Amino acid sequence: MTTLTTLNIATRQSPLALWQAEHIQARLQALYPSLTVNLVPMVTKGDKILDTPLAKIGGKGLFVKELEQALYEKRADIAVHSLKDVPMVLPEGLTLGAYCEREQPTDAFISNHYESIDALPQGAKLGTSSLRRQCQIQQYRPDLEIISLRGNVGTRLSKLDAGEYDAIILATSGLTRLGLTDRIRHELDTHISLPAVGQGALAIECRSDDADVLALLKPLNDEPSRLCVMAERAMNRHLQGGCQVPIAGFATIQDGQIYLQGRVGSVDGKTLLKAEHHNALVDDARESEQIAEAVGVVVAEALIAQGADKILAQIYQDG
């Protein structure tokens, strides 16, 4: 039983981030009725700079740095993140204390006039902030005009409704959490758009030496989700990729085997490299973690053998 009486959660102030923090707040209060759980809302650099593509200003790590500073300064005990926003290597002294059960990880097609990505007319304007989505969609529909789209979910939907785009692509999980599934025309099949590493999963970051908090978070961990995203993140880390690069990775567990697909593409969609690998998991949690991460490395090596390192080096140089 925890000796803590109060727990503070650092969170961004966007509606989706607040939903995520409130969701974890409610789960912790249900588990520990005597625990007072407070939210510590803050604005990050990624929230302030909305007129520049994320890849140009440092990637999605900009959404977590202020929250991590609050952990260091002990103004907060945990921070709740969408895992796809979390850099592949954490700062010293911080760890991911729990990987929560994953929501649907797909990309969602949203349009007020067209039923599907196939129904879009030639030259239609499609909005996304993601180089990963851009490279895969340009491969599938090279005729579309891909236009950068920043802002929170509500802002992006408003821009669509104002007629700035014919369609936009958002994460299914975010729309589901905000009760906006009625805006989804369809979910993109993974053969068209493989999800981002960690997409749909929530992770809880804390200080690595905070044994009380780590014990508190343990019941929130979902082991299948944890192993899948560990494989994905190991692949991304081995590719030396960040959060805002054209890398896709998606793992599933079926019949005791962990399966991982990975992709790396050029931004124009003319090159899209693909690799996959699977291996059997075991009963031991630590050994399964090592197996999952090894699967990630194998997929990364297969992509590098096809030239992924050269594609990514060019993107970093251009950025």
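Above is the first protein from milestone M3; the second protein from the same milestone is given next.
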Amino acid sequence: MADKPSRALVLYGDGLARFIDPLHTHLHSLASKAACGFLSLPNSPPSESEDERLVREFAVLVDAHPAYVSEIGKHTTELECQKKPQFQTVSDRFMGMKAALITNNSRLKSFGGKLGFTTLQLNELIKTSGSLAALPVDVLASELLKLLGFQGGKMEDASQFDLVFVHIGAGEKMNGVKEEANAHDMEYANSLVGVILQTAQPGTEVGSHLHLSVVMSYGCVLEADSSKLSVLIPKDEKKSDLSVLFPRQSYTMQGESPRDDVRHHCPMLISQWQHAVTRKDMAETFSFKDFKEHGGNLVIPADRFLHEVAFKLWKAPKYGA
């Protein structure tokens, strides 16, 4: 662990995983020095809208899916409404952790606010209008780090937030017009990663105390993706004589019980890096194939993600204990 609590920046590329290509060198550079793997999600409900998917997957990522299900549930009596579980804030759950959510999606802002996130829009952080591309990458990176108490390459003793969660991609609105995730968003996210890596060079205070997570999801999943983007180990690869004893993979379990609803394809891709704190695995590129073959984190349930980050910030007991 670091000599003082880390501060965390999470860049969440919602629906951007399918746009990653070999030219996104900053993203691949991060993967080559980070701990990489997958975050598994539950299956999508039938007839789910894009906004519903966006909020639901975020809810899973911050371990608030039961609260989300309660929020959208139909309560027909006053008694049922009174029994409806209350939202527990991130501060209550994680030892006073101060967290911000930056997104241009109004529905996600509303849900994040109920979870105790301070919510901001990207163009509120930098006073500008227009598309995401109109926000200067270096200025945005500086503002994000400033929220975490990093200025001029130094770490201040106090910061506005312990965790800043940035949502880029599907369902964003600029000037009131909803935009879909696209290759331009991926280009922007790649550039943002590059600026942050440059600022957080090993040996600097930022590099020593910034815990960076980059999460890329596939967004709305197509049936054609289910076979080529599966995390299951094919039967023909279980060549050991002990294959009949092949264990149930841990991401399919919750405690001693199997999880009822696990999607085995199109997981979120994740790289996590903090100099001299996170492990380095054998992955060299930010890709499904490389993470499956060489990623050190393998597959974990997406609802465990925030607990692991909170541990790095000294806001949770040891992850997994």
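Note on the second protein: The radius of gyration is 19 Å.
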